[in-house]
Every structure is written in structure tokens, then in C-alpha cells.
Amino acid sequence: MEPTEYIWQNGEFVPWDEARVHVLTHGLHYGTGVFEGVRCYNTEQGPAIFRGRDHMKRLHTSGKLYYMDLEYTPEQLLEITKDLITRNGLTDCYIRPFAFRGYGEIGLFPLNSKIEYSIAVWEWASYLGDEGKKNGIRAKISSWRRMSPASFIPQAKASGQYLNSVLAKIESHHAGYQEAILMDENDYVCEGSGENIFVVKDGKIATPSLANSILQGINRDSVMQIATDMGIPVVERNVTRTELVTADEVFMTGTAAELVPVREIDDQLIGDPGPITRQLQAKFDDALYGRAPEYNEWLDFVGSPQPVTKDAAQV
Questions:
Q1: What is the DSSP pairing of strand 179-183 with strand 137-141?
Q2: How far is the C-alpha of 160 from the C-alpha of 110, rounded, in Å?
Q3: How many structural domains is the chain composed of?
Q4: Are 48 and 115 within one domain?
Q5: What is the pTM assigned to this prediction?
Q6: What is the pLDDT of residue 307?
């Protein structure tokens, strides 16, 4: 990770190395925090955050699901992020907004611990590498199941829940793969450790639905819209393990990974990235970088950020 100059923390822009939390921070001990992964891209019209408002709205939704009423509105958080990007002199960067239960009380009951906030931005290449984006990755079906909705809230992007993904990621790494694929509690395909997954068969796309315990990915939603606009049928449904290895094409989407083809699963060859994956990848990249005017509504241009105060109404 390449440090930048400033991090925004609890209403102030502080030097990167001076961003601190107490060792008894509630979120550090119990995972009581919610976060987002967002990216800014350097378009011909200037730096633009991809679907920034949607990401900040999802942060609020995640907070609400875990009894955290965030005092900054999505619009305020977006403006703060724009200001932070400008102060750090960045054009392409990854963005990590984070709200968590801070120092106060250490018991399991969290509501007496105040909510603290941070946003960090830094340059970060594609999560699974440029080679992975170009030629595809090798994935392993994990022995770890995706967390059950009877125990957690899969649709919340909550920090403690990601221990589930960490276990799957380490397992796949030790086995020599670049990514893991988790099944849900009913033995249907769920998602990668940090990405949504799609299968292509006979010119049609299928992807697991919310009922399969997935996170409702914003890049997932974007790619589904692009596919529909291109006339490629897309359906959300149960996807079986067998369908993964008999698919014509498989790909994953996520903010960190963007759109990455999967060429091999459990040593079963899927093949080189196929034509539908390539079409979607090209159009999606155009949308990210402002080269597809029909999707410019997804871009929140950094421009000149507006001043932010904390007295706006909560959402």
C-alpha cells in the first residue's frame, strides 16, 4: 500500500501516519463496523468516482442493519471524499469509507460506544492483477460455506463478517489459486471471497440471486444493466457447482477486481476469456473511464468539492 498525504477521520483531514484509534476500540475487538470499497477513475472530463452516491447509500444501509445511525449523509460523505481526493492530488484511486463503533465500552452490547468515521484513498491496481483481467484467473471452490442469513446479514458490508471471506481466501492461496468461490448453505454457488460471479452458457448469463446470500454488488448491478442494454439475456437464479465447470464462460465483478474472467475452476479448464466476457469487460471499462456517454450518470465527478458541515439531517 502506497501512503497518501491525508486521511479524513472524524471530521478532520489528518496526516496519513497520524490516523489513530484506541486499542480498546469496539470495532477492533468485535468487528462492529461497516465499510465500502469505491474507485475513482481519471476520465477525459477529469477524475470521477464510479457510482459514489450508490456506494455511500449502501454504507448507510449496512449501518442501519447493524443499528448504526450514521450522522453524515451519503451526499456529505461523497463531498468529503471528493475533497480528500483533491487534497491528495490523486486522479485514479481506491476509496475506503469506514464507520465503526469506537472506544467507550468493551462488552458485547455496542450501542453505548460512539460511532467513529474514516475515509482513506490511495492508488491501488486491479485486485487480481492486470494479468488476471487480461487472461483470466484460476479459482477454487472453497470448503468454507458463505455465512448463513440465519446468523449474519449477507446484504450488509460489515467488517466482522469478512472473516468468512478471509478463511476462503487463505485456503485458495495455500492451494495455489488466485481466488475462492463460496457455496451457500443450500449448496448453490454464492460468490467469490470479494466478488460476485456470473456464468455464461449458450449466449445467456446467469448469476446467483440475493436469496443465495450474496452481497448486492454495485459493479454486479452495472454489468447486468450493460448486458441487458447489449441484448444479452441475464437471469438471477440458483447456480449449481456443475454449471461452473460446464459453462462456456465465467467471470467475476467487484470494485477492487473490476471485471475479471475465470479461466479455470478446481483444475477444470473453462478456457480463455470468451466473447461475451470480452464485450462486457470492454463496455464496462468504457463506463468506468467516461468513454460511454450513456452511462455518465454513474460518474460523480470530483470537480470542486463543496464544504461539508455535520448539522445536516440524517438519512
A1: parallel
A2: 13
A3: 2
A4: yes
A5: 0.94
A6: 59
